[in-house]
Amino acid sequence: MPIVTVQVTREGSAPGRNSVTAEEKAAIIKGVSEVLLNVLNKPLESTYVVIEEVDLDNWGWGGLPTAQYRQQRAAETKS
Amino acid sequence: MPIVTVQVTREGSAPGRNSVTAEEKAAIIKGVSEVLLNVLNKPLESTYVVIEEVDLDNWGWGGLPTAQYRQQRAAETKS
Amino acid sequence: MPIVTVQVTREGSAPGRNSVTAEEKAAIIKGVSEVLLNVLNKPLESTYVVIEEVDLDNWGWGGLPTAQYRQQRAAETKS
Amino acid sequence: MPIVTVQVTREGSAPGRNSVTAEEKAAIIKGVSEVLLNVLNKPLESTYVVIEEVDLDNWGWGGLPTAQYRQQRAAETKS
Amino acid sequence: MPIVTVQVTREGSAPGRNSVTAEEKAAIIKGVSEVLLNVLNKPLESTYVVIEEVDLDNWGWGGLPTAQYRQQRAAETKS
Amino acid sequence: MPIVTVQVTREGSAPGRNSVTAEEKAAIIKGVSEVLLNVLNKPLESTYVVIEEVDLDNWGWGGLPTAQYRQQRAAETKS
After folding, report:
1. Which domain holds residue B42?
2. In the sheet that F59-61 helps form, which strands lie side by side, from edge to edge?
3. D60 touching B, CB under 8 A?
4. CA nearest neighbour of B35 among C14, C28, A72
5. Chain F: residue nearest B4 by CA?
């Protein structure tokens, strides 16, 4: 009876989207549940998956809010 | 100093409601805090309770988003 | 299908014990599961409970490891 | 590669605010990431920080929702 | 930069094992990281996976410690 | 009343150590509690800190267990 918690930033995976779509969530749920089935033989119905979308402001990386960290990395890559 | 985290789907417990009510949240907080008091003798004021409401789309069960899994189970029960 | 996570310090509830007993764990599981049943009408079999025991060194309170914080509070109470 | 999760109540730190500001979030991210750098020598870019803001109704303390517990404590202090 | 937390009971997936093997852990890490890559286009190097093994006594289901709940379900199925 | 959870790999910060020391844990607890005090004005005594040490096998990065991912990165850097 695994519990899988997936934390991702709340943003779109393509231009014009600003969040994870319901189809993408369903694909994540299916995918990680099948990993537990295939690797540990856990029946699908015993696995709970919880997806937590985190606002970009609330996710830090490199000591900065994510948006700023990405800008910094992009700037470094260019130079 | 226990920390109790309660994750539930964001939905009503009765027709016409679409979320957990403030009264229900207060009852959950009281109930689980008293369990820790009664079983482990933890003073109420040392227990933190955090309730996390999770959108139905973000909760997976049986490899599916919860709403679809419930439909599938209901269909199986009927047949 | 709630998930309840209970974090407590790894210590005994009575002299001569140094951890939570199996009976206490069972009582916590029973107690919190019944809270969800009574308040939100969640069937017992849909609730997962995970108990996490945390070493005293790994739990901080008042800016200090818990054992030191308790000593400090006990000293303050006496004086 | 530490992960630091910071859970706080969703409320302002000064009159007229009702949530944590973007500047405060950035300061939390910077501060806790630097703690991990200074104490454990973890590079900033390997630390993830996730800030979770929790509604006051969803945070329990002393067996009560936080707002009620604060009122009770304030009343006790006065008397 | 997703974080995936996988909580499973600490037990073997085959007779004679009493925990998840290093190979199984590696397969879980690979599998769930690839789900995030395939569904949300998250680079593998930006995904952290944390596996938490939970003692059977510390995992509750059906209001009981897991081992007891499984016995109860097995008994019900037979009768 | 913040809760700060710090997850780190269980390994030493210097040769000859294989875990985080008690002094380092105390410094982490002090440091992150002071961040919450300084940034959000949260009293030290209202902050709980929980440190979770995660075995290297149980932490994945880049789709691999951490030890393997580090070897791969080191090899890439050399070449």
Report:
1. 3-78
2. B64-65, B59-61, A48-54, A3-9, E3-9, E48-54, F59-61, F64-65
3. yes
4. C28
5. F3
Rounded to 10°, the helix B22-40/C22-40 angle is: 160
A7: left (phi over 0), alpha (psi -120 to 50) or beta: beta
Interface confidence (ipTM) of the complex: 0.96
- What per-residue confidence (pLDDT) applies to A14? 82
Kindly tell me if the per-residue pLDDT of F13 is higher than 90: no
For C12, the 3-state DSSP assignment is: coil
CATH of the domain at E35: 3.30.429.10
Count up the domains in chain B and report the number.
1
Residue E77 has pLDDT above 90, yes or no: no
Residue A3 contacts C, CB cutoff 8 Å: yes
Closest of D42, A62, D3 to residue F12, by C-alpha:
D42
E42 touches chain A (CB under 8 A): yes
Instruction: Give tens-digit pLDDT for D41-53.
Output: 999 999 999 999 9
What is the average pLDDT across E40-44?
Answer: 96
β-partners of residue D7 are D52, F3
Quote the percentage of chain F above a pLDDT of 90: 85
**In a 3-state reduction of DSSP, which class is residue D10?**
coil
Q: Are strands D48-54 and D3-9 parallel, antiparallel or unpaired?
A: parallel
The verdict on a CB contact (< 8 Å) between B3 and C4 is no
Burial of C7 (0-12, 13-18, 19+ CB in 10 A): buried
Q: Is C43 a catalytic residue?
A: no
Q: Which residues contact B33 (CB under 8 A, 6 or more apart)?
A: B4, B44, B47, B49, D60, D62, D63
Phi, psi of E6 (to 5 degrees): -115, 115
Report which of B10, B6, B7 is spatially closest to residue B18, judged by C-alpha positions: B10
Helix orientation angle between E22-40 and A22-40, rounded to the nearest 10 degrees: 160
Q: At CA D24, angle to CA D23 and CA D28, rounded to 5?
A: 120
Nearest alpha-carbon partner for D47 in A69, F75, F39, F10: A69
Q: Does A have 3 or more CB contacts under 8 Å with C? A: yes
Instruction: Give buried/exposed letters for C17-51 (b at 16+ CB in 10 A, else e).
Output: eeebeeebbbbbbbbbbebbbebbebebebbbbbb
Closest-CA residue of B relative to C6 is B4
